[in-house]
Amino acid sequence: xxxxxxxxxxxxxxxxxxxxxxxxxxxxxxxxxxxxxxxxxxxxxxxxxxxxxxxxxxxxxxxxxxxxxxxxxxxxxxxxxxxxxxxxxxxxxxxxxxxxxxxxxxxxxxxxxxxxxxxxxxxxxxxxxxxxxxxxxxxxxxxxxxxxxxxxxxxxxxxxxxxxxxxxxxxxxxxxxxxxxxxxxxxxxxxxxxxxxxxxxxxxxxxxxxxxxxxxxxxxxxxxxxxxxxxxxxxxxxxxxxxxxxxxxxxxxxxxxxxxxxxxxxxxxxxxxxxxxxxxxxxxxxxxxxxxxxxxxxx
Length: 299
What we know:
This protein is of the alpha/beta class. It has a single domain (4-289), classed as Alpha-Beta Complex (Spore Coat Polysaccharide Biosynthesis Protein SpsA, Chain A). 27% of the residues lie in helices and 26% in strands. The protein contains 7 helices and 13 strands. Strands 1, 2, 3, 4, 6, 7, 8, 9, 10, 11 and 12 form an 11-stranded mixed beta sheet that branches. Strands 5-13 form a two-stranded antiparallel ribbon. The two termini are 28 Å apart.
């Protein structure tokens, strides 16, 4: 059975200011998602599930329906505020989506095979998809999930500091924890974290989480139970979010299984602010010029 790719594309993009999910960054107007889907097809994925909001449904389907027809099975799933709340009343002032783990949960009825989860606005590279596909086909079970670990150096920005989820792993390569480190930047041959916490310096190849996860479908029921707990504790907090690392942390601590950190050498880049757009376009053009991708992905 071929694995599925789940793309988290329901974010509001408030910092970016427009619908970056469907903005053209490639030389022929490709979105960042186009490159992820292209890599997924090339490495053996059989279906792509878009997690979107109803208000953007038409925009996203208009971009992808035609180009993906007869290339890969596609499905669209809505992430709406009242989904999986089991009758709990959502406060009127709540406008922010419940978070990435809730977005994954919304795919429960659309996914019955091992699957990968990625962000819509991040470029992950072919190597990450190769390793994810291999894991999902050969090693994924209800007791063994995985996370693609990107070399921290390859996730930094030339234009300032970033925040990154730094992974701690045990001797077997299993995830122990993800720690959000702030104000991360390259200083000569070391990576500095100017957030007041230890360690203040990290090695260049420290594994970082860029939200590229691989799960067995058993994650859905587990996540649903945790989301019920989350709502009881956070329903009155309009900014509380239910993130994938929250689920991963509980899964590890409750000894439900292990999450392997699979190292990838791929270069990551993403778009958060408008100023990132020219850099992303340049990076994609360099990959095309180097022969990594065709000038037009779907020609």
